[in-house]
Write a structure and sequence with these properties.
binds thiamine diphosphate, alpha/beta, 2-oxoglutarate dehydrogenase, mitochondrial, 7-stranded mixed β-sheet, Rossmann fold, binds magnesium ion, single chain, 42 helices, 8-stranded mixed β-sheet
């Protein structure tokens, strides 16, 4: 055969391969065949056709070269072909004799109808292709069928896999023509099912989409089926064809299909037997010693321990240094004993019912966590294994574990998950049933939440408590949830230890290679009831009849290895006896233990944090004015101009307002928060804020991440570039999950005390969907597991007429879970009273009213000598309320957190005149403040803000009670009576009052009546309720009050009109300045909103009003532009004062019901009720009259050596890839 003939053959093959796609290719193929016919030496077209069809071009070329060198080096048939001799029919490979197959559908008739000129064929060509000879098509068809069969096994083989050790679930076997029992059922092969009854000796060329051939390129149909059966329908059913990545599917295919890949060496088998002996031996021992104790044994899924162990070995061998395990009850003690190597005596001592020597309530033994650093003898590497303490609430540990793993990666500078690896062990019913599984899995590939792959192992005992899978899930597998993240899922028969080990290796390697989630579903059974005292025959009689007949996996495997000659019977018996002795010795040892310590079960030790520290020392939280300026200037500046960052004009306006505030030395909520974050970052504390839309802020007030307006994914975060050596700042918009994200952040906070970790709810009561995390981890974690966390929850809360679900953060629930005793008056004379109170409570609950207090409160979180969760109810309207601002002096070194803010106005100065002492918390203070002014009761009503509700500030409350000895005592809240803080504060007020023998007063409730709904959705009703509340405190407005208010309004309207006529507009530029150039500085005070206009003001004393009834603008999910519109640069905090009110009260006038109105007539009180400005400051500002433009140049006078801002091109990669330096900046020390 000459080169021309060979090339033609190659062309034939290629063309035929493409033949199905179009007429042109078929034509090409025909032409090529004709070439061979004319140049060939007597070979028939059919032979060549089939020959070319079955071989690869490269293969033929290789053979041809070989043949040229030595004609005898190739098979006789090739020699004939290349030398041009005709083959005899007897020498021919058996071709798929489709015509002789009974059950096979007839080959598709490729009759080509000649197209008349101008007619178009179905394929769109202008003319029809001549038909290929029928045998060509048969051959092609046959190969396609083979390919489809292979594909069917690959994608659906798991449906016919032999996974159930009980033999209850699973397909039936079918007898093929060769008498072989095959699993592959119609479900797998579908339309190709009949093929397994074909001529099984037919030889086929294997397609490139399979590796079952190994080095062989041709296999008989029988061999193909046998191999596919073994691989896909044996004891492993692998689901991987759903994965969209070709690299990953090829990788898995390679691992499963390559012949010989599953063989274990003798030593490996022996090791496996040893591990299985330990796993089974441990449960047997416990069963023997504590037959009636609950331990949630592993029997029936004993292979779980060797499987985890294999994953651990493999991963540590590949460089993993820390493994975090999250799991529920089943087999937990076994994991502690045989994976973590917790001394068995320690575990057994938990069964003795001993007293604990440390504080806390402890937890049941199968929930306890632990932490161990040890040498892995198999790999000779140190490995740290953590089993995270677990509440009974199934699967809720998952996000906590992930957050902890993520934080550990951060601490170690592990930006790819190479050193830290999470493993989660699931139950079958809970894996499919608990929504948090799905929510957590959805974090798996998010840049700020990824743990670079988690290994999931399901101990699938085919039952959940008493419920069969058919009643507990609609999906075929309990693992189907993992398909959403494209995870490969390896179902494996738990009674085949070697298959399980094989899967363990593959998942460990997969995670190392791809850093993605992967699942093993260990399909076993549960030998006992749900717990050892349960009778399973009540509900699963048939299943348990089978189970009773089954030999334990250990016995089966031992028999197998004895038969194979891997171990002898006596060796196996010695193995069992040896482990029994270990357990017996531990038992004896455990009997000597007389007390237990909860702290020895801690899963997150913080070495070095508590040692040598005076826990009761509260460090100052104030900072210098220079730091305030640096942070303030950076935070208020747009990105430097050289970066040509196009900033939204609304943002520029906000930045201009911030600049103005910095110049005026006053801070609003977002600036106060930025001061807290920035100063902590400066001090090396990593700050992480996570939650839905936190980057901008739900209420569009934060704007930490600025977005380039014309370039995608280019963002700027000034707080990440304050100081060259600052700690990293992570502000992360989360997935729309509360449960998983809050759990994640809680886990993140557990990893190190040197970080401020916050989760913000979109609205406070969305924490409803994270209740389990709140109850079982945050509220009680320290008590149960001696584990601290300083996680902060920011829950927007206040009644603004926004409806039932957008109003309440459910303060009452958090307070109800607080564990300070309402009936015990603490020792307030103790010098460490404040710190001790904080240390002894389970969490801190605050409802703050000033930015400065937020600042101090957040900083206190990391300044304390211990860690406590903080639940802070954040404001909504106060975010922009002109009165809710703090002067810089409230942030300085002399300032501190104020647990209670007394009345510092006229009432506070002349307490003897005070008739009513009103205690309140949060935003309602501003309503009361305004109404007191309107009602002209500033001298007679004292307003006291309880900023820290829990622990209750008894000392300060008592001081207030003593200061106003004759005043009537009121608790005023805007929430309904059965909500808010009332039920918490009432008994505590009583306790404080009872302390004083001469006291006969009690505190009365003023607020909304009880309700099942947190708030009305009707604005009119909202206002009616509001009015009733106000009237109950101050009474109705008198005619004099009304007259005075009307006069005020008229005056201000007139003034506003005059101002508007005399001063030019200070509107910001209509289009954003390009290249980051500064917006033109306003030339005068920004136009003021119209003053209170009666029509827009709810009628006082009237029955209803259509007007806005809230006391503040509804700060819903406003867009940025409207947010910018809503925020008033010329707030009266800076310049406006109602002279009459000012004079009369000697303090700031009250805020208005409608904040815009109030904004236009009230000067801002500081948090203590006094204007942050002196009159001089206020008038100076009025004189200067302009809001300067934000500083543009990084070298501007107000900057103190800021680090060069970096523009981050956001990519879908992980955050850590984006910022590989984060580990270097990490202030937290690795805990090793
Ligand atoms: C959130 C939650 N709901 C219900 C329970 C009660 N419960 C404990 S174990 C269990 C069955 C769990 O079945 P599965 O996940 O299959 O684990 P198994 O016990 O079979 O190992 C149930 C319903 C619980 N602990 N947590
Ligand atoms: Mg189960």
């Amino acid at each position: 055969m000459n080169q021309c003939r060979l090339r033609s053959l190659v062309r034939i093959r290629r063309s035929l391969a493409l033949g199905l796609r179009g007429t042109d290719h078929r034509l090409l193929a025909r032409q090529a065949l004709r070439t061979i016919q004319t140049t060939g030496q007597g070979r028939g077209v059919h032979d060549l056709d089939s020959f070319a069809n079955g071989c690869s071009a490269a293969y033929i070329e290789g053979l041809y070269k070989k043949w040229k060198r030595n004609p005898k080096s190739v098979d006789e048939s090739w020699n004939e072909l290349f030398s041009g001799n005709d083959r005899t029919t007897t020498n021919r490979r058996p071709l798929p004799a489709s015509h002789s197959r009974k059950n096979r559908r007839p080959p598709v008739e490729r009759t080509v109808v000649k197209a008349r000129s101008g007619e178009r064929t179905a394929s769109g060509g202008a003319s029809a292709a001549p038909a290929a000879p029928p045998s060509d098509w048969k051959n092609i068809d046959d190969h396609h069928v083979i390919q489809a069969i292979i594909r069917a096994y690959q994608s659906r083989g798991h449906l016919a896999a032999d996974l159930d050790p009980l033999g209850i679930v699973g397909p039936k076997k079918h007898t093929s023509v060769d008498g072989t029992q095959r699993h592959a059922a119609r479900e797998v092969l579908r339309q190709h099912y009949s093929y397994i009854f074909s001529d099984l000796n037919t030889m086929f060329k294997l397609p490139s989409s399979t590796m079952i051939g190994g080095d062989e390129e041709f296999l008989t149909l029988k061999e193909i089926l046998d191999r596919l059966e073994r691989i896909y329908c044996g004891h492993i059913g692998v689901e991987y064809m759903q994965i969209t990545s070709l690299t990953k599917t090829n990788w898995i295919r390679d691992r499963f299909e390559k012949p010989g890949g599953f063989d274990l060496t003798k030593a490996e088998k022996k090791l496996l037997l040893e591990r299985l002996t330990r796993s089974t031996g441990f449960e047997n021992f416990l069963a023997k010693k504590f037959s009636s104790e609950k331990r949630f044994g592993l029997e029936g899924c004993d292979i779980m321990i060797p499987t985890i162990k294999e994953v651990v070995d493999r991963a540590t061998d590949q460089g993993v240094e820390s493994i975090l395990i999250g799991m529920a009850h089943r087999g937990r003690l076994n994991v502690l004993a045989n994976i973590c190597r917790k001394p068995i005596s320690d575990i057994l001592s938990q069964f003795h019912g001993l007293k604990a020597t440390d504080s806390g309530s402890g937890d049941v033994k199968y929930h306890l966590g632990m932490f161990q650093e040890r040498l892995n003898r198999q790999t000779n590497r140190m490995v740290r294994i953590t089993v995270v303490a677990n509440p009974s609430h199934l699967e809720h540990v998952n996000p906590v574990l992930l957050g902890k793993a993520r934080a550990e990666m951060f601490q170690r500078g592990d930006t790819s998950g190479s050193k830290v690896m999470p493993i989660i062990i699931h139950g079958d019913a809970s894996f499919s049933g608990q929504g948090v599984v799905y929510e957590s899995m959805h974090l798996s590939d998010l840049p700020r939440y990824t743990t670079y792959g988690t290994i999931h192992i399901v101990t699938n005992n085919q039952v959940g408590f008493t419920t069969d899978p058919r009643f507990s899930r609609s999906s075929r597998y309990c693992t189907d949830v993992a398909r959403v993240v494209d995870a490969p899922i390896l179902h494996v028969n738990a009674d085949d230890p070697e298959a399980c080990i094989q899967c363990a290796r593959i998942v460990a390697d997969y995670r190392t290679r791809f850093k993605k989630d992967v699942v093993i579903d260990l399909v076993g059974y549960r030998r006992n009831g749900h717990n050892e005292a349960d009778e399973p025959m009540f509900t699963q009689p048939l299943m348990y009849q089978r189970i009773r007949k089954l030999k334990p996996c250990l016995q089966l495997y031992a028999e197998k290895l004895i038969k194979e000659g891997v171990v002898t019977d006596s060796e196996f018996k010695a193995m069992v006896a040896e482990y029994e002795k270990i357990c017996e010795d531990a038992w004896t040892e455990s009997k000597a233990v007389k007390t237990i310590k909860y702290s020895s079960w801690i899963d997150s030790p913080w070495p070095g944090f508590f040692e040598g520290r005076d826990r009761l020392k509260l460090c100052p939280t104030g900072i210098s004015i220079e730091t305030l300026k640096t942070i303030g200037n950076m935070f208020s500046s747009p990105p430097p101009s050289e970066h040509k960052f196009e900033t939204h004009k609304g943002i520029l306006r906000i930045l201009a307002q911030r600049t103005q505030m910095v110049q005026d030395k006053v801070a609003d909520w977002s600036l106060g928060e930025a001061f807290a974050f920035g100063s902590l970052l400066k001090e090396g504390i990593h700050v992480r804020l996570s939650g839905q839309d936190v980057e901008r802020g739900t209420f569009s007030h934060r704007h930490h991440v600025l977005h380039h307006q014309t370039e995608d994914k280019v963002v700027y975060n000034s707080l990440d570039h304050l100081y060259p050596d600052q700690a990293p700042y992570s502000v992360c918009n989360s997935s729309l999950s509360e449960c998983a994200v809050l759990g994640f952040e809680h886990g993140y906070s557990m990893a190190s005390p040197h970080a401020l970790v916050m989760w913000e709810g979109q609205f406070g009561d969305f924490c409803n969907t994270a209740q389990c995390i709140i109850d079982t981890f945050i509220a009680s974690g320290e008590t149960k597991w001696v584990r601290q966390s300083g996680v902060v929850l920011l829950l927007p809360h206040s009644m603004e007429g926004m409806g039932p679900e957008h109003s309440s953060g459910r303060i009452e629930r958090f307070l109800q879970m607080s564990d300070d005793d309402p009936d015990v008056y603490p020792d307030t004379c103790d010098a460490d009273f404040v710190a001790r109170q904080l240390m002894n409570v389970n969490w801190i609950v605050t409802n703050l009213s000033t930015p400065a207090n937020l600042f101090h409160c957040l900083r206190r979180q990391v300044k304390m000598g211990f860690r406590k969760p903080l639940i802070n109810f954040s404001p909504k309207s106060l975010l922009r309320h002109p009165l809710a601002r703090s002067p810089f002096k409230d942030f300085n070194e002399c300032s501190s957190f104020q647990r209670l803010i007394p009345d510092k106005g006229p009432a506070g100065k002349q307490p003897e005149c005070v008739k009513k002492l009103v205690f309140c918390t949060g935003k309602v203070y501003y309503d009361l403040f305004k109404e007191r002014d309107d009602h002209e009761q500033v001298e007679t009503v004292a307003l006291v803000r309880v900023e820290q509700i829990c622990p209750f500030p008894y000392d300060l409350i008592s001081q207030q009670l003593e200061l106003y000895p004759t005043a009537e005592l009121l608790w005023v809240q805007e929430e309904h009576k059965n909500m808010g803080a009332w039920s918490y504060v009432q008994p505590r007020f009583d306790t404080a009052l009872l302390k004083n023998e001469n006291e006969s007063r009690c505190v009365s409730y003023h607020g909304r009546p009880p309700s099942s709904s947190p708030a009305t959705g009707n604005k009119v009703q909202h206002y009616t309720e509001y009015k009733a509340l106000i009237n109950s405190v101050f009474g109705e407005l008198t005619p004099e009050n009304k007259k005075r208010l009307e006069d005020q309004v008229k005056k201000q309207q007139a003034k506003a009109k005059a101002d508007a006529q005399s001063k030019p507009s200070t509107k910001p530029p209509s289009s954003p300045p390009k290249g980051g150039s500064p917006p033109p500085a306003p030339t005068g005070p920004a136009p003021r909103k119209p003053l209170i206009s009666m029509p827009s003001r709810p009628p006082r004393g009237g029955s209803s009003g259509k007007q806005r009834t809230g006391s503040a603008p509804a700060p819903d999910l406003v867009d940025e532009a409207s947010a910018a519109r809503n925020s008033e640069p010329d707030s009266p905090a800076h310049d406006g004062a109602s002279p009459s009110a000012w004079k009369r009260s000697g303090s700031a006038p009250a805020p208005s019901l409608a904040p815009r109105a109030s904004a236009s007539r009230s000067p801002a009180p500081a948090h203590d009720g006094v204007s942050p400005f002196t009159r001089e400051e206020s008038s100076r500002k009025k004189r200067s009259g302009s809001a300067p433009a934000p500083t543009q140049s990084p070298s501007g006078p107000l900057r103190t050596a800021p680090s060069k801002p970096v523009f981050i091109k956001r990519r879908p990669e992980k955050e850590s890839q984006r910022n590989p330096e984060e580990s270097k900046l990490d202030p937290t020390k690795p805990e090793r």
